[in-house]
Each structure stands twice: as structure tokens, then as C-alpha cells.
Amino acid sequence: MSFDDHTPLLRVQNLVKEFKQSARKQFRAVDDVGFDLSQRETLGVVGESGSGKSTTARMVARLIDPTSGSIEFQGEDVTTRTGAALRHFRGNVQVVFQDPYSSLNPRHTVEQIISAPLRYQGRKVSGGYRKAVKEAMDRVGLNPDHSARHPMQFSGGQAQRIGIARALAVEPKLVICDEAVSALDVSVQAQVLDLLRDLQREHDFSYIFVAHDLAVVRQIAHKVAVMSAGRLVEQGPRDAIFDNPQHEYTRTLLSAVPRINPEWESARKSRDEGNLTASSGN
């Protein structure tokens, strides 16, 4: 199957994940989940803790293997890839994790952390790894002169920017953000979300944004998938899900979301429409 602008960047079909609880009992954490994701698009995956959203994201990234179902990336089935083929796939799909400190090796410098995916992929970099690291740090708003520091010498927001820089170093097509801002203060969340949107406009990649906070998802997602007890109960364009939810579970989640400031919402819609027009003109 060839990949073109009409083929979804990612297509997930009938995805299932079961974990062994005992010799005779299996727990189904993800049950028959499916969705498509286009280039330059952000899918927000929401639900309560235990809903299966992070397990789904980790299967898409091939960090864990699905029990059944299929994952197609750029028109090719990557569900059972191993070895060099899996390594190549992971160069196109990167993950930003929830806790920036626990996901960054405290013994490594920022330069070692950000260059690790490049080294793992065996990428030849013009000007060397050090130059690539400094460019990546500059791209996410970090001081390139701090590349010799260690993660614990940075604030939480800065440490998460290191994680984002690491993910972007190999120029992926898809970035999976697994609760990537939930451990940050609200003001820092806003800065990181703005950064993620800016980077998407500059580099045309797609996001899967996993979160339990619907107010955050509304700020960044183009479409939303709602999960409950391992199943996908509702999905659709962001505004359709927020303005006219069809499933009772979605309505329950939304009832806990603080009211959106009307002036902010109007500005957000105008910005999104402008971005869509700009993308259509490219």
C-alpha cells in the first residue's frame, strides 16, 4: 500500500490488549479501539484513570504489543514489526511522557539525552550531534549553552521541554504526548501547549494527546476520542464533542470542566481558522 495525502498517517483498527491476571483469567484493558489520524492533525484521547487511553497510546508507539488488531502507519502495517523495521518505525513515532524527571536519565547530560534517539537510529547529522542538540534546545526555548547540565538542574517546565526536544530530534511524523502537561503548573501548561502548537505549525507533524483534563484537550486537539473501561465510546471533531456530546459518559466528563472564557474561546477559534487557512494554502 502506498502512502499519499489521501491516506491517513495513522489507522488503528480493532485494537485489543489483554493482560494476564492469573493462570485462567485475562484482563482486557483495551477493547476494539479504532481511529484515523491525518497529517498535521491532533487527536485528543480522553478518559478517567484506567480507561485504557495510555495503554492505547503505548501500543500505537509499539512500546507494548497488542493482543489483536492492527496499526497502519503511512499505509503500511506495523503491528508486528521487529528488529530494524521496528527501529525505523520508532524514528517516525516519538513519545513525550507525563513526568519529565522520571523519563529523563538523571545521570545523563541534556546533550546525551537529546542525542540518544539520533544515536539509536544511527542518524548521520550535518555538523555533528552537538550542533543538532543545540538547535533542538533552541527550538523548544531552552538555552543551548546549558546542554552540559543534568535534568534536575531544570524546572519542571524546562525538563518537559527537554523531553520534547528529545522527541523532535529525529524529526518524527507523529508525537504521542502521554499526559505530557498534567504534572505541570497551570501557567507552565499553557506555555508548553503553545510550544507544541507552534512546533506543529513549523514542522507539520501530528499529535496523539492523551489527557484526563478536557479543558487542556480543548485547547490543542482538532478531534477527540473518549474512552471508558477500555472502549472508545465517542469520537469526532473537537467542537462537536464539546458542544454536542452524544454519549452519557462524555457528558459526565464535560460537566466537570470549568466554563471556558468566551473571549478566550473566540480568540482560539479565530486562531484555529487562520491556521487551517494557512495550511490549506501550502
UniProtKB/TrEMBL annotation:
User: SMART domains, from UniProt?
Assistant: AAA (SM00382)
Keywords associated with the record: ATP-binding, Nucleotide-binding, Transport
UniProt KW Zinc keyword: no
What are the residue boundaries of the ABC transporter domain, all occurrences included?
10-254
Check the record and name the CDD domains matching this protein: ABC_NikE_OppD_transporters
Any one GO molecular function term = ATP binding
Establish whether keyword Endoplasmic reticulum is in the entry. no
Q: Which domain of life is it from?
A: Bacteria
- Output the GO biological process annotations, alphabetical, semicolon-separated: peptide transport; transmembrane transport
Q: Spell out the family assignment given in the record's similarity comment.
A: Belongs to the ABC transporter superfamily.
**What name is this protein filed under?**
ABC transporter domain-containing protein
